[in-house]
């Protein structure tokens, strides 16, 4: 590892860019924590595995550059803090489930821009919201259970694709009819 966070230390990085970054660059000891804070960008170096949780607060970006990130062991994206947004740009995620991407605050958002998500189990989206930009695909043979009371949006010139092998189960807890909206005529929700 290039960076070690010692036991008992809690670190938040803000206003920083991590270039050619890999989860292997970090060692987080027991009882230590790291939060990727506001205005932080992570540019992944290559295809990799995430085996421990990454925490995000404020507006943060992960730029994949076409790489694949696979969740293993305890690997997860945890979006915490009121109105926090995690933007994923140009990345493929393998091993996604309810435990792998989760919100600690109801007001959190996951913004996808040209992202492919492969589920390894059902993904229960019971909090937070999605913002779809570009062309984003969810597949993997499991179910996306959309139960969040919050509204998600497919932005202009964007498409959320639910692949043929995957089920979108729409059941917001507040029974709202507009839980997933299309910004305009150029937006699409495609179920193949």
Compact overview of the structure:
This protein has 192 residues and is mainly β.
Structural overview:
This protein has 192 residues and is an all-beta fold. 0% of the residues lie in helices and 53% in strands. The chain is built from no helices and 25 strands. Strands 3-6-9-12-15-18-21-24 form an 8-stranded parallel beta sheet, with no helix packed on it. Strands 7-10-13-16-19-22-25 form a 7-stranded parallel beta sheet, with no helix packed on it. The mean pLDDT is 96.
Task: Supply the key terms.
192 residues, mainly beta, 8-stranded parallel sheet, 7-stranded parallel sheet, 0% helix, globular
What topology does this entry show?
Layout (H helix, E strand, L loop, with lengths): L2 E3 L4 E4 L3 E5 L4 E3 L4 E4 L3 E5 L3 E3 L2 E4 L2 E5 L4 E4 L4 E4 L5 E5 L2 E5 L4 E3 L5 E5 L2 E4 L3 E3 L3 E5 L1 E5 L3 E4 L5 E3 L4 E4 L4 E4 L9 E3 L5 E4 L1
Parallel strand pairs: 1-4, 2-5, 3-6, 5-8, 6-9, 7-10, 8-11, 9-12, 10-13, 11-14, 12-15, 13-16, 15-18, 16-19, 17-20, 18-21, 19-22, 20-23, 21-24, 22-25
């Amino acid at each position: 590892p290039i960076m070690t966070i010692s036991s008992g230390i809690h670190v938040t990085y803000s206003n920083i860019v991590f270039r050619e970054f890999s989860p292997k660059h970090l060692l987080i000891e027991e009882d230590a924590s790291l939060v990727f804070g506001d205005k932080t960008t992570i540019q992944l170096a290559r295809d990799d595995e995430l085996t421990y949780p990454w925490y995000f607060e404020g507006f943060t970006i992960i730029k994949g550059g076409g790489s694949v990130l696979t969740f293993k062991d305890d690997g997860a994206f945890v979006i915490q803090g009121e109105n926090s947004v995690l933007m994923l740009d140009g990345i493929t995620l393998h091993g996604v489930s309810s435990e792998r991407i989760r919100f600690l605050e109801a007001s959190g958002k996951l913004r996808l821009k040209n992202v492919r998500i492969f589920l390894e189990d059902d993904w229960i989206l019971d909090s937070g919201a999605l913002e779809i930009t570009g062309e984003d695909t969810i597949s993997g043979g499991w179910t996306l259970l959309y139960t969040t009371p919050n509204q998600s949006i497919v932005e202009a010139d964007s498409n959320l694709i639910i692949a043929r092998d995957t089920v979108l189960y729409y059941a917001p807890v507040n029974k709202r009819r507009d839980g997933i909206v299309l910004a305009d005529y150029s937006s699409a929700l495609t179920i193949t």
